[in-house]
Amino acid sequence: MRDETSITIKSLQNKLIIGLVLGLIISAGLALWGDIGQIGNAVKGFGWHYAPQILAFVVMGYLGRFLKWQLYLDELNIKIGWQDSARVFFSGLCMAVTPGKVGEVLKSYLLLKQHKVSFCRSAPTIIAERLTDLIAMLILATLAASVVNYGKTFIIVGLLLSLGIVLVLQWRRLAMALLQGLENIPLVKRKSQLFRDMYESAYLLSRSGLLFKAVLISIIAWLCECIALYYILLGFGTAASIQVAMFVFSLGSIAGGLSMLPGGLGVAEGSMIGLLLSCGIDFTGAAGATLFARFGTLWFGVFLGLLTLLLNWRRFNLNARSD
Predict the structure, then answer these.
(1) pLDDT by residue (tens digit) across 100-117?
(2) Residue numbers of the domain that contains 279
(3) Residue 250 lies in a domain
(4) Cellular component per GO (predicted)?
């Protein structure tokens, strides 16, 4: 399958290691910046009775995103059992700390290795996931924007750009013209059929009916993550509202994603802390809540993905070379 994709498990492993190391550095930096002693005391005083609610909403968020993944596979007529689908999806979570989450193409790689599903056929699901996640978080931020007096212009521009991408994907004549233009580039010309196949999948995944369902699922899934942040803030003794949690989590996540840094590390944390400070949360509470939120919504998924991948390493036949 080397002609179809040059992706290797080793290259993905390298990206993952870089993300993990950067994550440790960012977490240590935040702790030092915010005074380890004060944050330590805040953690000791954390309301751990909120832990069940936090864990429940984090898990519901991941399950919602799995439901969207399954919706996309059904649309592309990729027929695999839900257990195999879950193994692939949750294994892909370990790549959330790669730049722009592009490492999540691991899911397409695993489909190729285990089920012989064409890489270019399934890879657009990753783009569709990111696009619907972006639209969902922009909608959540819009719904919560009434509690703050800034960010509205950024939200509107983001929504317009997202809808513009959808329109380009659905405007076949324009999309084909763009593809033909790209084929004039020597390096792209050799892969022209691959890009056309990927576009066909992207076209199916961006149709209005499916887009509406996917965005709705994304809103519910990411709302669960926002509610988890709300309970984390309560655990740190703040009086933040659910709207504040929605606004902070959504815009912080968007900023991290747009940075294209591994997992948005540094940018997402800094944005969330800054937004919490602007909403009247003290620095210790803001830093502690951000670290807890990122552990639940990022690192929990990464470690869950690593565990799933390692437990299914032989099943995925990852030690074998691609033909």
Answers:
(1) 566 678 898 899 888 888
(2) 9-39+51-311
(3) yes
(4) plasma membrane
